[in-house]
Amino acid sequence: MGAQTSAEFFEGTAMPAVPMIQGFDPDVETLSFTLSEDDMDATLRLEDLADQTGVRLSIGDRLIAVLFGVRADDLEPGCLQFEFE
Predict the structure, then answer these.
(1) Contacting residues for 65 by C-beta, under 8 A, at least 6 apart
(2) Mapping DSSP to helix (H, G, I), strand (E, B) and coil, where does residue 13 land?
(3) For the chain, what is the radius of gyration of the CA atoms?
(4) How far is CA 33 from the centre of its chain?
């Protein structure tokens, strides 16, 4: 999948059923996600939107969130936490 701009991300008739998070500050905040145990061994991918307005957060081939206002390089280890059940 190629990089998308924020405008391209929102094109179409249906919004994706994933959290759209605006204003996350990875220097002072932590985001926690609860995922299925099936996702435990999947690869975490952080992909900047083409216009650098946000980051697509994916586990395996599944989009789990879009963080607006940050870039992948802004996300330090530990600012994203995952629990598997």
Answers:
(1) 18, 19, 20, 21, 31, 33, 57
(2) coil
(3) 13
(4) 11
- The alpha carbon of 51 is separated from its chain's Cα centroid by a whole number of angstroms, namely 15
- Could you read off the pLDDT tens digit of each residue along the chain, which spans 85 residues? 455 555 555 555 455 688 899 999 999 999 999 999 999 999 999 999 999 999 999 999 899 999 999 999 999 989 999 999 9
State the number of CA atoms in the 13 A half-sphere of 50 facing the CB. Answer: 9
Which residue is listed with tokens 């994933």? 18
Residues 32 and 1: their CA atoms lie apart, in Å, by: 25
Report the half-sphere exposure of 83 (CA within 13 A, side-chain side).
5
Distance separating alpha carbons of residues 11 and 73, to the nearest angstrom: 26
Instruction: Compute the distance between CA of residue 68 and CA of residue 20 in angstroms, rounded to an integer.
Output: 7
Residue 58 · residue 10 · CB < 8 Å = no
